[in-house]
Design the sequence.
């Protein structure tokens, strides 16, 4: 039997020390010891990306990463994402706005990958985005709206820095109600959800 | 309509982007025991003996159970509505663990342990002795007399179903051909005969099938599961354990995709039984990706001989399909998928002299095939669309014009299922316009060189829901809160398709209560949520739509009646009142009283208090056809056999589009699935051993983002008179035609017909070499 | 949770070697993207893992005073692709590393593991073979350097002893200076693939860029181990780059050196087609990169 030990690392902005069995993957530890259930299991062999988290800012599959290796490192899961105002990050908002979420099981992994991509501060094209997210599998969306959501998040990030970035317009969705309507809908939804979840939202955004 | 038809943002998106949405594994109690299943290492045979003595000694093992220990009950697993006519019940052909091994990876024993490692170590120490038979993997092989009969209780031969749907009882293709020659002369006819094969494929929902079970304090066997069909799951678990149905409770949280795999009851019965064997303690059973690919369900591989006859001026004269369907080790949905395939092939075109569509469904030593998105129709449309394009190619006809002349029309399908609205030809016209069909067909003539471009298309027709093959009902409950908001409860499930959002839109439309004040209960719980069969057959929005409309109107009437009764309406009578935007309003639209005030006054009245609740059950007795098509523009790298998609569009005739943004997103996903079907996905089984060769996500190739083109989507928005909100099927149809359209585009680009999906580079290169197109 | 006996995080290479020596069940793990999968499959279940995952001494890329390039074995694929020395001098190696698995795998998977697993399909291996890389291992008997041509002993097998840790790879100046490379990978999908075939070509043109002065071609999956195609190499030397037939002939010659096998992943015939076609295409691309006008 392998022995129990403790690991010290920073998880979602907090320094923590937790017990773990040294046979554990980081997937096991984040879910079982820290209850971070957004980290999902889809293949256990680094093929699907559902268990991705950010380790020191880079996206890694936790199913094939020993917990021990994370000693002293900084981990981010979607539970830890928030912008400077404690609101959803733009990446999360874009996923909502662009209908990039369906069953939602692969979503946390994609969002973390997108956070890494946007954080690169590079004007990636749609094809480059596709290459960067090719380690995350999704069976519901066909990826298109995910690529668009990331593209829009890059656009907003570039705009904030006063840089140019051209959104591609190489596809067409008929019956689309346009960008303005979508933005309005997102705002409405967020208000709606926050009213419903006021208590939990407060907890997430203010206490962590 | 105020809410339906608008691109409302998903109601569950917030929970899903924050990681707050909980799926089955996220909810499992920490003290749960872990169960693991031992699978057979042979594909055909019997378990003679199992030695568990060493396994039981592994520290942490709580129990080891084998096929010799389970109840002597055979049960069905299909997510079909129950039928009071015993002849319509699904085959009850498996036990919780099986002595008779019918496929490689069959379930023969299970371990329950304190943790996963102990369970895995114990599995390795179980010694099984088999009496092994030769495996018969394919339908044709397993139909041979020498193949041992896999389910003698169900059928005397491995072929457990033979069906034949004909245009008329006396139709015979060869006779029709003779007649056609007499009528048109041989020179004026074109015939194509081909054998077409479709692959065995896996659903690959990203969440693995997972459940946990415990015996509750009231004695109920409770199963929390990632299932599309909680109410059916309850019935099957009860059946498998020999319990009264009410003794079982099934709870379904958020689910990470299903696509039909979770329309079968998978490991829930075993998980529930294992809990009863360890004193009712919670038992967690999550299978691996490999177990999912091999041991749950798959899409049927079909092997069909097709024949088609047309006149040179472009008229379908006769068609035939004789289809050999590999069903795998267990029946799953039995022959119903074959039946749907057979029916669609028959109905998709009009044949002057008739059609014979016929199929044999066969138990074989392969993974069990059952429901997968579009239920036999991707296969049907492979047969019909390959054949049609080959005929057009041979006769020099334009595939678009030919289809416009010969495809099913508004009157060609008669009976209980028919087109109440018809948009197929309009879909074809829209698709052709988008892809610039005529222009490109001209431009792509007589190409040489290594890169060749082509355009292709495929059409489909698809029923909405399952009536009258099975019963169709849905029940809805709406509960009014003190603030004028409501809970909507349904047994129909959100599986990623957007059901909760669309229910919210429909409920707002039906009640006059605004979108933000409607809370659809996302978790289904057979003890709490009203009855519904669940997510399958592109049925839910249609069937639930009727129920929500009726229930919403009932709730509205109750609120208005209470308002009148409580003298809140300034003397106005019920027939003068309506509810709009959370208020009871009069005919001029002026607010009389808010719904919240009615709720408060009703609930807290000292003398006539009442909790306002509406509930109704709605049975659906119509079934309307949806239809549509894919158009694609591709290029083929001849020497490497690689296909690149330059442009692709799906056009759908699905009635009123309930939520265009979510509908488009759903179509993208279906198109992507069909691209995988057409280009890269096939689960390979070694025919000598029955062993799967590529049962993981590296070797089983679903499309990655780099394989995904940008998709175009269009809808022919036409309100269907039968739908609660004018809608028709859309969940499954997007997954049908992209593969056939690509195959037909390869024919256009290269002049070579391929008859086996997926169109792998290896197949293309071999085909091009055979035709001398490459060295 | 993995079915393993223990995990030991080594403090240095020599510490790792000592621990490997002490326990017969011990195996070395670095990125984990192969070893942990083998553990899960049961092939390496019950092993004692000696980890060099976080060892800084085996990470990073440097150029020594002789302009030899030294690649730490523990450097992950992502860091190789994005390294400036690699981009300027060994572009095709960086590109080959950029085709391994998906982006997440490339963050943790290392070039050391890719060469140590002995796989003919390893994406970095064919380019390393074309570059005549030297492999430095440290074991109980000290350090030794093995030319990559002597490294592989069979499918999944190398000359590395269980107790040895590969610490770095040396790419000699004469093997890359003036050469331009191209790596072609064929997989069924465009990402997340084990190569069905990989082909790496390095070419050096004459001063006037009209003829091929030297060429090296190495394959993955065309034979049981990553292999060079000597007949193709000697054929192309001195040939004019403007002769279209030369490229086709180069592919045919390469095929004559290879012996691909039939498997469920790909037929022998299809692999043969890929061997020819990828050689032709890789050579053309490499020539273009070298400034040749075809």
Sequence:
């Amino acid at each position: 039997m392998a022995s129990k030990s403790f690991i010290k690392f920073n998880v979602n902005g907090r320094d923590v020390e937790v017990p773990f069995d040294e046979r554990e993957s980081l997937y096991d530890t984040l879910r079982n010891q820290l209850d971070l259930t957004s980290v999902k299991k889809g293949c256990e062999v680094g093929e699907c990306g559902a268990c991705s988290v950010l380790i020191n800012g880079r996206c890694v599959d936790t199913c094939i990463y020993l917990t021990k290796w994370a000693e002293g490192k900084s981990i981010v899961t979607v539970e830890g994402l928030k912008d400077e105002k404690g609101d959803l990050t733009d990446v999360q908002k874009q996923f909502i706005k662009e209908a990039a979420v369906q069953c939602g099981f692969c979503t946390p992994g994609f969002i973390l990958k997108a956070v890494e991509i946007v954080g690169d501060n590079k004007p990636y094209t749609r094809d480059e985005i596709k290459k960067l997210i090719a380690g995350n599998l999704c069976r519901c969306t066909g990826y298109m709206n995910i690529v668009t959501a990331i593209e829009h998040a890059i656009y907003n990030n570039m705009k904030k820095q006063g840089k140019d970035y051209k959104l591609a317009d190489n596809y067409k969705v008929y019956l689309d109600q346009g960008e303005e309507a979508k933005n309005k809908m997102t705002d409405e939804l967020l208000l709606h959800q926050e009213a419903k979840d006021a208590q939990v939202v407060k907890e997430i955004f203010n206490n962590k | 309509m105020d809410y339906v038809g608008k691109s409302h943002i998903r109601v569950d998106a917030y929970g899903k982007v924050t990681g707050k949405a909980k799926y089955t594994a996220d909810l499992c109690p920490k003290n749960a025991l872990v169960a693991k299943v031992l699978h057979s290492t042979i594909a055909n045979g019997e378990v003679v003996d199992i030695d568990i003595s060493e396994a039981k000694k592994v520290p942490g093992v709580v129990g080891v159970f084998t096929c010799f220990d389970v109840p002597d009950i055979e049960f069905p697993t299909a997510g079909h509505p129950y039928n009071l006519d015993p002849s319509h019940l699904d085959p009850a052909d498996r036990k919780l663990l099986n002595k008779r091994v019918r496929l490689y990876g069959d379930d023969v024993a299970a371990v329950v342990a304190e943790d996963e490692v102990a369970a895995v170590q114990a599995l390795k120490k179980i010694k099984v002795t088999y009496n092994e038979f030769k495996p018969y993997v394919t339908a044709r092989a397993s139909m041979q007399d020498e193949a041992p009969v896999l389910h003698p209780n169900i059928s005397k031969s491995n072929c457990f179903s033979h069906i034949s749907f004909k245009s008329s009882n006396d139709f015979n293709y060869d006779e029709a051909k003779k007649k056609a020659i007499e009528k048109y002369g041989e020179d004026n006819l074109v015939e194509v005969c081909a054998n077409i094969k479709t692959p065995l494929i896996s659903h690959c929902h990203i969440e693995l099938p997972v459940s946990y079970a415990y015996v509750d304090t009231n004695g109920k066997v409770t199963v929390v599961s990632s299932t599309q069909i909680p109410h059916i799951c309850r019935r099957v678990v009860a059946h498998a354990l020999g319990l009264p149905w009410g003794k079982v409770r099934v709870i379904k949280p958020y689910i990470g995709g299903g696509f039909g795999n979770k329309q079968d009851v998978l490991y829930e019965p075993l998980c529930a039984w294992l809990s009863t064997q360890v004193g009712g303690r919670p038992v967690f059973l999550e299978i691996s990706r490999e177990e999912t690919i091999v041991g749950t369900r798959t899409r049927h591989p079909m092997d069909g001989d097709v024949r088609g006859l047309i006149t040179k001026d472009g008229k379908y004269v006769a068609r035939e399909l004789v289809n050999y369907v590999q069903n795998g080790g267990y029946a799953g949905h039995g022959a119903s998928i074959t039946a749907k395939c057979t029916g669609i092939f028959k109905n998709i075109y009009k044949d002057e002299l008739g059609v014979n569509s016929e199929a044999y469904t066969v138990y074989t030593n392969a993974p069990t095939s059952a429901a997968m998105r579009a239920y036999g129709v991707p296969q049907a449309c492979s047969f019909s669309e390959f054949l049609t394009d080959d005929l057009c190619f041979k006769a020099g006809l334009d595939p678009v014009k030919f289809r416009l002349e010969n495809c099913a029309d508004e009157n060609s399908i008669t009976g209980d299922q028919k087109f109440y609205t018809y948009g197929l030809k309009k879909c074809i016209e829209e698709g052709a316009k988008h892809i610039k069909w005529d222009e490109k067909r001209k431009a792509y003539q007589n190409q040489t060189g290594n890169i060749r471009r082509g355009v292709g298309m495929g059409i489909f027709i698809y029923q909405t829901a399952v009536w009258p093959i099975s019963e169709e009902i849905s029940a809805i409950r709406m509960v009014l809160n003190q603030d004028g908001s409501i809970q909507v409860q349904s047994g129909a499930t959100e599986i990623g398709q957007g059901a909760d959002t669309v229910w919210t839109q429909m409920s707002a439309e039906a009640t006059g209560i605004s979108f933000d004040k409607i809370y659809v209960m996302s978790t289904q719980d057979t003890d709490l949520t009203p009855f519904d069969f669940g997510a399958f057959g592109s049925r839910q929005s249609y069937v639930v739509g009727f129920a929500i409309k009726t229930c919403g109107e009932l709730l509205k009437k109750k609120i208005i009646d209470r308002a009148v009764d409580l003298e809140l309406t300034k003397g106005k009578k019920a027939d003068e009142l309506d509810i709009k935007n959370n208020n009871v309003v009069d005919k001029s639209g002026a607010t009389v009283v808010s719904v919240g005030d009615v709720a408060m006054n009703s609930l807290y009245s000292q003398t006539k208090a009442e909790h306002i609740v509406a509930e109704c059950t709605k049975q659906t007795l119509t079934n309307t056809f949806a239809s549509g098509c894919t158009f694609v523009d591709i290029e083929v790298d001849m020497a490497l056999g690689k296909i690149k998609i330059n442009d692709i569009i799906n056009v759908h005739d699905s009635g009123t589009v309930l939520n265009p943004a979510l509908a488009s997103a759903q179509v993208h996903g279906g198109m992507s699935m069909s691209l995988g079907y057409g280009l890269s996905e096939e689960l390979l089984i070694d025919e000598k051993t029955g062993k799967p060769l590529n049962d993981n996500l590296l070797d089983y190739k679903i499309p990655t983002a780099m394989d995904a083109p940008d998709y175009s989507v269009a809808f022919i928005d036409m309100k269907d008179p039968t739908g609660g909100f004018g809608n028709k099927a859309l969940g499954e149809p997007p997954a049908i035609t992209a593969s056939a359209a690509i195959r037909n585009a390869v024919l256009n680009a290269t002049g070579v017909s391929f008859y086996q999906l997926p169109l792998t580079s290896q197949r293309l290169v071999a085909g091009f070499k055979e035709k001398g197109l490459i060295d | 949770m993995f079915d393993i006996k223990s995990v030991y995080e080594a403090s240095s290479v020599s510490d790792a070697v000592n621990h490997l020596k002490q326990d017969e069940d011990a195996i070395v793990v670095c990125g984990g993207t192969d070893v942990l999968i083998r553990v899960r499959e049961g092939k390496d279940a019950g092993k004692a893992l000696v980890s060099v995952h976080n060892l800084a001494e085996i990470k990073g890329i440097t150029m020594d005073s002789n302009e030899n390039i030294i690649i730490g074995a523990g450097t992950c694929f992502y860091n190789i692709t994005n390294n400036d020395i690699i981009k300027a001098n060994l572009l095709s190696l960086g590109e080959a590393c950029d085709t391994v698995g998906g982006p997440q795998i490339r963050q943790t998977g290392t070039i050391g593991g890719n060469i140590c697993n002995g796989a003919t399909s390893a994406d970095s291996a064919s380019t390393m073979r074309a570059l005549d890389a030297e492999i430095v291992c440290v074991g109980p008997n000290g350090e030794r350097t093995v030319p990559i041509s002597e490294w592989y002993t069979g499918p999944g097998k190398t000359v590395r002893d269980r107790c040895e840790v590969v610490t770095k790879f040396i790419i000699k100046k004469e093997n890359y200076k003036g050469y331009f490379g191209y790596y072609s990978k064929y997989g069924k999908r465009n990402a997340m693939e084990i190569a069905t075939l990989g082909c790496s070509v390095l070419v050096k043109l004459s001063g006037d860029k009209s003829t091929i002065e030297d060429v090296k071609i190495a394959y993955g999956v065309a034979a049981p181990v990553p292999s060079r195609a000597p007949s193709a190499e000697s054929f192309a030397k001195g040939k004019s780059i403007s002769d279209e037939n030369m490229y086709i002939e180069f592919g045919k010659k390469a095929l004559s050196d290879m012996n691909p096998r039939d498997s469920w992943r790909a037929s022998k015939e299809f692999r043969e087609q890929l061997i020819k076609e990828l050689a032709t295409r890789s050579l053309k691309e490499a020539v273009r990169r070298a400034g040749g006008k075809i």
